[in-house]
Amino acid sequence: MAQKKIGKQTVKFQNPPSIISTASIVGPKEGEGPLKEYFDIILEDDLYDQDSWEKAESKMLEDAMKMAIKNAKLLEEQIEYILAGDLLNQIISSSFAVRQLQRPYFGLYGACSTMTESLSLGSMIVDGGFADNVLCATSSHFCTAERQYRFPLELGNQRPFTSQWTVTGAGAAVISANGSGPYITHVTTGKIVDPGIKDVNNMGAAMAPAAADTIIQHFEDTGFNVDDYDLIITGDLSGIGKPIAEELILTKGIDISTIYKDCGIEIFDGKRQDTHAGGSGCGCSASVFAGYLYKELKKGKYNRILLVSTGALHSPVSANQGESIPGIAHAVTISNVIS
Amino acid sequence: MAQKKIGKQTVKFQNPPSIISTASIVGPKEGEGPLKEYFDIILEDDLYDQDSWEKAESKMLEDAMKMAIKNAKLLEEQIEYILAGDLLNQIISSSFAVRQLQRPYFGLYGACSTMTESLSLGSMIVDGGFADNVLCATSSHFCTAERQYRFPLELGNQRPFTSQWTVTGAGAAVISANGSGPYITHVTTGKIVDPGIKDVNNMGAAMAPAAADTIIQHFEDTGFNVDDYDLIITGDLSGIGKPIAEELILTKGIDISTIYKDCGIEIFDGKRQDTHAGGSGCGCSASVFAGYLYKELKKGKYNRILLVSTGALHSPVSANQGESIPGIAHAVTISNVIS
């Protein structure tokens, strides 16, 4: 068996890569939420001085990437790979952002699971001895996602209470072979789990079984107990999906309830901010990770967390052709100590 | 410097992964082209017994993946990661195909560069000690791509002579830590190069500078000469882009003309088949690699090749918003001997 593989879907790094910097940028609404103190930049206007929302999203991602590099005290030339993706068709936010950086680039698509997809592959690249510094990044934007996936905002459609609010935000992190943590010590890569849900306004329920599957597998593969973590946090299951995931995990005798949160619930004050089931989008777990989680790890509030970004792998075309919504979730252990 | 990195953008594997099997499926038109003898399955009808072209593309990819696993004499459970992507919005062809396999999955988007993107990351995962068997795959379909990127086929629009014909095809390969070659020995990962071209019917010209950039960098990083290769083959520059790339590379004093081919030119008989500048799409380099190139490597006609899949990272939205077409190209050295 491959030397760094443990169990069925997990790898344990021999030289765990260090997250040496992050950067986060969010929109005005996210900047009024409970985590506002943690973001590096809060936009005053979600057009960000660009002439389209798509260009604004790309600019937000570009600036987050550049800021993460600066925060790492590196030059752009020292970044050996960029791993990035987003929700837009042909991941144009990422490609046009990366165009400004001129570094070797692997484009990813994992829907809202992209942040941990990039951290997983980025860590493998560093631990595998292929690079010293890798930049991982992703973004989403409420206005670009709404008009691509649902309706033009100008229509003012009503949204059902199961629907989620796509986070306008970007997060970036530099992973390095050199550094003093927090470290990425384990990666559990998800399989597609499709519970057969066809309601595109209920993505939390569609993704919850995938999150549960990955978290259960993570415990099985690593032999960790719930006590080994200070926090388990999913990407964007929000108000509908989080209790489903928690219950599915409990059926295997694992009670995560005391340490389990969801980025989509944390980023907004749902009632005050009228975000229905909660936040979603690649930028949700990306900005919560790069803002809140990373900073609280550095401060020592958390010492070991399991970050599990969650993705719904459908498209408007697949939904219109009667397909259900496949879910996926990738888990990454981030720890201040190497175990 | 990271131990397996050579030069600026290249890695050299310590234990080069072996390509232990491939599989290729193409549409009826590709099955009438010059490479027809090499494909494993030629569809009689491009709907492939499905009720939409999108579902047909996904089925084609699923079947190619399953066939590659079978050809490798492995069980599905022995595949530790699937790395796949395609051209459709939210890469639905890949996600719905992978849903049928229940294996850990990283979704990729590199437009038509996806085959070598997946081979690059897949090789790093194997050489890095994270897995013994990884499945790399991609697809494209003329009918899904036309209606997504350009016009509904029913309109019967005329196509300019610079335009290319998206290949209906899927290719898959199993990369393994165990095997007797052909081996993936080096990977040179591309940067985005954007020559400012805005004509979405001239993607060959838009991608050619990226291909040239990666090939020049590959020679610089590795110290290889043109004589070290039996064949250099780009993905889908076709009739317009190939001579541009060749000339750009010549400006650096490197004359690849005697051993340089392009998958988009090889797959169709342009004049007889009315494909204008030539073939394109993720499935172009994927099926030519999995069909023709792999089989000729096994037979010893070629002993060492450089496969350079090329991608145009635009979208209809970015084009409509006035953006140019960013290009990217990833190069992979495939060799019967480990150098």
From TrEMBL, chains A, B:
InterPro entries: SpoVAD, SpoVAD_sf, Thiolase-like. It holds the Pfam family SpoVAD. One of its GO terms (molecular function) is acyltransferase activity. NCBIfam families: PRK08304.1, PRK12404.1, spore_V_AD. This is Stage V sporulation protein AD. It comes from Thermohalobacter berrensis.
